[in-house]
Amino acid sequence: MSIFKETRNLLGGLGITLRHMLAKPVTIQYPEEKRTLPSRFRARIVLTRDPDGDERCVACYLCSAACPVDCISMQSGERPNGRRYAEWFRINFSRCIFCGLCAEACPTLAIQMTPDYEFCKRDIREMIYEKEDLLIDGCGKDDSYNFYRHAGIGVTQPRGEGLEETRPVDARSLMP
Amino acid sequence: MTADPVDIALFAAKLGAVFFAVLTLAAYLVFAERRILAWIQDRKGPNRVGPFGLLQPLADVIKLLTKEDLVPAAADRWLFYLAPAMAAIPALLIFSVIPFGAPLTIAGHTLPLLIADLNVGLLFFLALSSIAVYGVAIGGWASNSKYSLLGGIRGLAQLISYELSMGLALVPVVMMSRSFSMTDIVTAQQSMPFIVYQPLAFIIFLISITAECRRIPFDLPEAEGELVAGFHTEYSGMRFGLFFVGEYINIIVLGGLAATFFLGGWHGPLLPPVIWFSIKTLAFAFLMIWLRGTLPRLRYDQLMHLGWKILTPLALFNILVTAWLLFLTS
Question: Signal peptide position in this chain (chain B) (predicted)?
Fold first, then answer.
């Protein structure tokens, strides 16, 4: 008879809710307890340095071009040896949507995302981070990569000194 | 009652205590519901205001009182003002006929632990529970909004489908205790609560008063999935709060009635009578919350079907069987 089946279903449902009532809640009490975030979590953006301690950013504008909300702006400059750098670099975090496209676009691994998601300010202008605020002392996620060891031929080191390079061949000496 | 000042003082104290207890209990039932529903859903619920969130009802009341009291431009003003009171006051009044403890004797004065020992207490309850639905209907009508109106109409239509079976489920109780007075009904259950003799009537009564509370699975007048908030869509601030608290007073009162009619009232071994009554009432309140966390809302026609085609015939059949058995044993 269907009434017995339905009564059993009803009691079964009550049993399930009772079991969940006695189970431990999954809630994390946020300000007191915090979960450990994965290292690839996308939050506050930083500018990292290469292993030698020089800043990685070469002011190529790829991050600001990739940014869907246009929150990154900079002015490129050039050192006497031809090495490019950012004269100023600015991220407006009040616009940033933490999509991570800038970090993906970056050819030198300079711009990276960190798991630090807790930053808020009373004054919205304080959400505009300048280069000094963004630049950190470490290498971020890759502690061996140095762009100018692999590319930017002839800018910071003579031709042929790069890691994947061979020394240039003297065409005149290449006799058959 | 003679105009003895001690009697009057005792009565006033009793009145104040009951008022305070019922309203506080209703406020904390809101809190309990939020916590228990949260546990059912693997959450923690409100636990920020005070230790374990125990001051949450106070915070809710402050919030409701300081909210803007909004009356829609097209609303029928006076009915709109009146409706929340009509929903909450009958619920409170019903409590006046529920005996919540054995009579006390203080300094030679006997103090029956109920407000008014009416000899038609049961009929008084049935009448008032029908009036309470006018709050819903009038609130829905006076708001002049389509959702409210639909909620109000549903409230009335729901009333006619469960009220009949609720009344009929109580007939066997009256037949067995041979009285409409709540005190006599409780006294008749001194040896054995009526639930033992009348399990079917108890189940019918339980389903009917769940509908009377207008709670899931019978919360058709509210039906937040379909009607925004049903009859109280247009209400804000403490007027909404009155509807809300009325619902919870209703749970307590109907829990008290279920205890009185079927579970032996304040009778029970070992513990003091008032404690037994509270346990039975709160167990019913817990059942209501538990059901809310478990069941989906019935469709409109399903409620009608349940009320008219199943509960009412069953209740009538139960009356016949009870009458036959009583006739045979007498």
Answer: none
Contacts of B40 in chain A (CB under 8 A): 17, 20-21
B48 touching A (Cβ < 8 Å): no
Task: State the alpha helices, DSSP H only, in A23-68.
Answer: 62-66
Q: What is the pTM of this model?
A: 0.77
Joined together, the tokens standing for residue B294 give 């478990």
Q: Is the CB of residue B96 less than 8 Å from the CB of residue B115? A: yes
Give the Cα separation of A83 and B75 in Å (integer): 74
Rounded to whole angstroms, the Cα distance separating B237 from B322 reads 48
A66 and A8 in contact (C-beta within 8 Å)?
Answer: no
A60 labeled binding residue = yes
Partner A contacted by B61 (CB < 8 A): no
Pairwise CA distance, residues A89 & B266, whole Å: 77
Residue A99 annotated as binding site:
yes
Tokens (6 digits) for B172: 């066997």
Residue position matching structure tokens 């009538």: B316
From first to last of its 330 residues, chain B has per-residue pLDDT tens of 456 777 788 788 888 888 888 888 888 898 999 999 999 998 888 888 888 888 888 888 898 889 888 888 888 888 888 888 888 888 888 888 888 877 777 766 777 777 777 888 888 888 888 888 888 888 888 888 888 888 888 888 888 888 888 888 888 888 888 888 888 888 888 888 888 888 888 889 988 888 888 887 888 878 777 888 778 888 888 888 888 888 888 888 888 888 888 888 777 787 788 888 888 889 988 998 998 888 888 888 888 888 888 889 999 999 999 889 888 887
Q: Which CATH class is domain A45-153?
A: alpha beta
Query: Does A57 carry a binding-site annotation?
Result: yes
CA–CA separation, B291 and B207 (whole Å): 11
Given B36, B44, B291, which is nearest A21 (Cβ)?
B36
Inter-chain touch B39–A25, beta carbons under 8 Å? yes
CA atoms within 13 A on the CB side of A5: 2
**Residue A92 phi, psi dihedral angles, 5° rounding:** -90, 100
> B56: which residues sit within 8 A by CB, 6+ positions away?
B31, B34, B46, B48, B49, B50
Cα gap B104→B234, rounded to integer Å:
46
Residues of chain A in contact with residue B289, where contact means CB-CB under 8 angstroms, are none
CA distance B207 to chain A (A): 13
* DSSP result, B59-75: HHHHHHHHS-----TTS
Q: Delimit the domains of chain A by residue range.
A: 45-153
Are residues B42 and A25, on separate chains, in Cβ contact within 8 Å?
Answer: yes
